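A quick aside before the break. I want you to see a complete sequence-to-structure record at least once, exactly as it would be stored in a machine-readable document. Don't worry about memorizing anything.
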Amino acid sequence: MKQMAYQTEERQLRAKMEEVLSRHRDQGPLKIENAADPFDQIQASVERDLLVGLLNRDAQLRDDLRRAFDLIENGGYGRCEDCEERIAPARLKAIPWARCCVRCQELRDREVNEADIFPEAA
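That is the input. The structure line, written in tokens, reads:
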């Protein structure tokens, strides 16, 4: 059953989805072209790598947005994935696709940062 209490968040989610889907329509920069100058090749490679990173980030965001829509539809929206407590309304207002409460998100971020710093411990 759809949760009517989250109409504002659902509008925000729809607007964000439209924004994400409208980005990167031109895939021209991903095209690999041979350049005579090695520095031009390096520059093009760096630009492609940056674009791929942005595309990957947007793909993850699209997944998060779709998940949030499903949770609104099925009644689980607004609950932390980790501790199952309610996510603060202010957090949902700021990030309507948030998966975790602030405390659990901080723990996730800390784990990711530690894995980056100490990869052998991960």
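Two observations worth writing down. The domain at 4-121 is CATH 1.20.120.910 (Four Helix Bundle (Hemerythrin (Met), subunit A)). The mean pLDDT is 86. We'll return to this after the break.
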